[in-house]
Specification:
This protein is α/β, with parallel strands linked by helices. The chain has a single domain, classed as Aldolase class I (TIM Barrel). Helices cover 43% and strands 14% of the residues. The protein has 12 helices and 10 strands. Strands 1-2-3-6-7-8-9-10 form an 8-stranded parallel β-barrel, surrounded by 7 helices. Helix 9 packs across helix 10 and helix 10 runs antiparallel to helix 11. The longest helix has 21 residues. Bound molecules: 1,3-dihydroxyacetonephosphate. 1,3-dihydroxyacetonephosphate (13P) binds next to helix 11. 1,3-dihydroxyacetonephosphate binds next to helix 11.
C-alpha cells in the first residue's frame, strides 16, 4: 500500500507490523553533537547528513524497520544522489516520521523537574511536515525520579501537553507517538520505577481521553520498568519483563495498536533481551516493539567513526542490531545471535 495514502489506523498498524520496529534518528542538534563527540567527529550539517545517509541507505534494513523518526534538519536533507530523505525512505517502504517537540525545559517552581515545550505554532508546523512527507510524529516528555519527585504538577502538566500535541497531530493526518519517558537514572528500586511509570501512564491516558485523542490512531513510546541504573540490586530480564507487563496491562487500553519502547540508556544487548523476554510471554493485547535510538545506532556509530571507508562496516553493524531486535519482536532472539556474523 502506498504510504502516503494510508489512513491513520493503517499507518499505526504498519509501524508495528510483525518483525518490525522504528529507528529513532531524531537526535536534536545538541544530542547528536554529544554522540559525535563520543567518536571524536565534528558535528556539522554535512557530517550529520552523511551519518543519517548511511543509516537510511542500509540495504535490507527495511525488512526490520517500519519507520524512521527524523529531526527538523534531517527531513529537509537528501541522500548523496540528491534524493530527499523522506522520498528515499518511502521508496523502501519505510514510513518517515518527525520529532515535533522543542525539548524539555525547566518546569517553573519545580526544582529538578522538566516540561516539554513546542505547542505554540504546532498546527502550522505539522502541516508543513505532512507536506514534506512525514506520516507520524513524536513528542517526548521527561519525568525524573528523585527525593520527593516527580510531583503531581509535573506529571499532569506533561500529560496535558502530550495530549494537546497528540490531538493536533491526528487532526493534521499524522500518527502521534506519545512518549512519556520516566528516566531510569538514579538508585531507585524497580518497585519505585513501577509506581512512577504507573502514575505517569494513568495521567497520560486520562488526558488523552479528555482531549479526544483516538487511541486506535496512536502509538505509546514508554520506558521499560527497570531498576535504577545506580541501584545495587539489578532486576534480571525475566523480572523486567514481568514488572513492565504488569504495569502496562493495568494502564494501557487494548485499543492502542502498539507499544514501542525507547531504550533510554540501556545497553543495546539489554534493550534487545528485555523486549524479547516480554514478547516470549505473549501474545499481548498490543504489539510490543521498539523505537530505539542508541540501542540501534551505538555499534554503527562506533564502526563509522566519521570515515567514509567505514560506511559499509557501520551499515553491517546497524543491520545486525535491527535484525536482532526484529527477532525480539517474536521472542525468538537468543544471546548466541549476538556473535553471528552481521
Ligand atoms: P533511545 O532509544 O536512545 O532512548 O532514544 C529513543 C528516543 O527517541 C528518545 O526520545
Amino acid at each position: 500500500m502506498a504510504i502516503h495514502t494510508m489512513s491513520l489506523e493503517e499507518t499505526a498498524q504498519a509501524l508495528v507490523a510483525p518483525g518490525k520496529g522504528i529507528l529513532a534518528a531524531d537526535e536534536s542538534g545538541g544530542t547528536i553533537k554529544k554522540r559525535f563527540d563520543s567518536i571524536a567527529v565534528e558535528s556539522t550539517e554535512e557530517t550529520r547528513r552523511a551519518y543519517r545517509d548511511l543509516l537510511f541507505t542500509t540495504e535490507g534494513a527495511e525488512d526490520f524497520v517500519s519507520g524512521v523518526i527524523l529531526y527538523d534538519e534531517t527531513i529537509r536533507q537528501s541522500s548523496a544522489d540528491g534524493t530527499p530523505f523522506p522520498k528515499l525512505l518511502e521508496s523502501k517502504g519505510i514510513i518517515p516520521g518527525i520529532k515535533v517537540d522543542n525539548g524539555a525545559k525547566d518546569l517553573a517552581s519545580a526544582p529538578g523537574e522538566k516540561i516539554t515545550e513546542g505547542l505554540d505554532g504546532l498546527r502550522e508546523r505539522l502541516a508543513e511536515y505532512y507536506e514534506l512527507g512525514a506520516r507520524f510524529a513524536k513528542w517526548r516528555a521527561v519525568i525524573t525520579i528523585g527525593p520527593g519527585i516527580p510531583s503531581e504538577y509535573c506529571l499532569w502538566t506533561n500529560a496535558h501537553a502530550l495530549a494537546r500535541y497528540a490531538a493536533l497531530a491526528q487532526e493534521a493526518g499524522l500518527v502521534p507517538i506519545v512518549e512519556p519517558e520516566v528516566l531510569m537514572d538514579g538508585d531507585q528500586s524497580i518497585a519505585r520505577s513501577f509506581d512512577v511509570t504507573a502514575h505517569t501512564l494513568h495521567a497520560v491516558f486520562t488526558e488523552l481521553r479528555d482531549q479526544r485523542v483516538h487511541l486506535e490512531q496512536m502509538l505509546l513510546k514508554p520506558n521499560m520498568v527497570l531498576s535504577g541504573y545506580e541501584s545495587a540490586e539489578q532486576a534480571d530480564a525475566d523480572e523486567v519483563a514481568e514488572q513492565t507487563l504488569r504495569c502496562f496491562y493495568r494502564h494501557v487500553p487494548a485499543a492502542v495498536p502498539g507499544i514501542v519502547f525507547l531504550s533510554g540508556g540501556q545497553t543495546d544487548e539489554d534493550a534487545t533481551a528485555h523486549l524479547n523476554a516480554m514478547n516470549a510471554l505473549g501474545p499481548h493485547p498490543w504489539q510490543l516493539s521498539f523505537s530505539y535510538g542508541r540501542a540501534l545506532q551505538a555499534p554503527a556509530l562506533e564502526a563509522w567513526g566519521g570515515k567514509p571507508e567505514n560506511v559499509e562496516a557501520a551499515q553491517q553493524a546497524y543491520y545486525h542490531r535491527a535484525r536482532l531486535n526484529s527477532a525480539a519482536r517474536s521472542g525468538s532472539y537468543t544471546p548466541e545471535m549476538e556473535r553471528e556474523a552481521a
